[in-house]
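Title: Prediction job returns without error message
Component: structure pipeline
Severity: low
Priority: P3
Assignee: unassigned

Description:
Job completed but the reporter wants confirmation the result is attached to the right record. Sequence as submitted:
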Amino acid sequence: MAYSPRLSLESSRTLRRIAWALGKPMTKTSEDIIAYLVNSLNEDAICQTCRDKTKCGTCHFKLGNQNNKIHIKSLMKS
């Protein structure tokens, strides 16, 4: 990975608790959270502000490239 963001203590604790609820490691849980967001956000808004148009073919925000395997939905409020 090119960039490893550091989490605040509070964010790390929150991620850990979500991971426990999903029964997964924190690394996989953070990927699931990102996959959920990708499928929940407005693709057009993301694409319009994108600063790297060289990756559109593999970008998850491009229509048709989305990952439909969202594992975090079981924890969402009704």
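Comment from assignee: result matches the submitted record. Helices lie at 9-22, 26-40, 43-49.
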